[in-house]
Amino acid sequence: MSIQSPAKCEIRSVIRYLVWKGKTPVEVYNEVKTAYGDKGMNRTSVFKWCREFKNGRTSVHDDQRSGRPSILTDDIVEKIENALRDDRRLTVDELSAMFPQISRSLLHETITETLGYRKLSARWVPKQLTDQHKLNQVEAGQEFLRRYKLHGDEFLRSIVTGDETWKSAAEAHRILVQTYGDNALSDTTCRDWFRRFKNNDFELEDKERCGAPKKFEDKELEQLLDEDPSQTLSELGKILQVDESTVSKRLKGLGMIQKQGHWVPRALKEKRPLYAQRHDKVILLHDNARPHVAKPVKTYLETLKWEVLPHPPYSPDIAPSDFHLFRSMAHSLADRRFHSYEEAQKWIDSWIASKDMSFFRRGIHVLPERWEKVVSSDGQYFK
């Protein structure tokens, strides 16, 4: 299998090394073709770079054109790093679409050399952790192990974990072009819809409302909550075709309150103390991505009185969503394309339903083993 989507500077670095080893241009070309396939570099270009390196050239990047200032400014480098921090699963192709003014090879060099990132568990992380990063990892691992030895599996049963994985607007547009060709939505339109969906607005059409407000019976609302008590005011309002304030008032009238994301009767805690005891003891394990550490999220978690486990930066090794759930899902998603949100949601629901509880439990119950590895590796990355 050949290496997919290589950066130009990567191939040139290989050519430079092979020339240094004394390989002939023909041998170099054969090596490059074996490693990168037909999309790597053509014969003429390989021979040209062999000649350049043999004549003493050391740089693997294109020469700066005269009269043109460098387009890679500190501001752009900062924007690239911010994009990676916002979504560490971005690919070079997706970043290239976000920064079209930069060549793909220069973008790859900026990520790997200037910013010092590499891929681990499909995320961009620093190539070398600082001593402080490693210390944070070890201290967190030791604390987790201490609590596990003290409370055993009860500690693991209290852990709830979660994360999200995104497909970027650039990738969505590329898939649309592959599927629909000239009839695909424009890149701008695609990004507009992408923002809308990311804001949890999944309406595909703008529906005009007219006439008197729709009325509904209490039993309709109760039936919806019986089917799924985790539905939001917005979701309930859309189903019942009323605004959120109307739903909120009716829920209060029914004596319903929201507890840990679920609508439950206000008197439930008094009627079922064991239920309350079990559900009040929630320990949340999620990474330190910006959406997770935002002030509104922290404030909301405080109102729930959930304990949040510390998660050191750059630690996909101990995030169950990364090393267990998404890795398995990505394998099943390989080369699969969806033509609508409903189709994607149906597939994901089906995939989750196909897994028994032992699959999800395993992602949590291997944590002690991974914490041990964190400590024994002195906080370094591990597979």
TrEMBL record:
GO terms for molecular function: DNA topoisomerase binding; double-stranded DNA binding; histone H3K36 methyltransferase activity; histone H3K4 methyltransferase activity; single-stranded DNA binding; single-stranded DNA endodeoxyribonuclease activity. GO terms for biological process: DNA double-strand break processing; DNA integration; double-strand break repair via nonhomologous end joining; mitotic DNA integrity checkpoint signaling; replication fork processing. InterPro entries: Homeodomain-like_sf, Mos1_HTH, RNaseH_sf, Transposase-MT_Hybrid, WH-like_DNA-bd_sf. SUPFAM superfamilies: Homeodomain-like. It comes from the Eukaryota. It is found in: Nucleus. This is MOS1T transposase. It comes from Pseudoatta argentina.
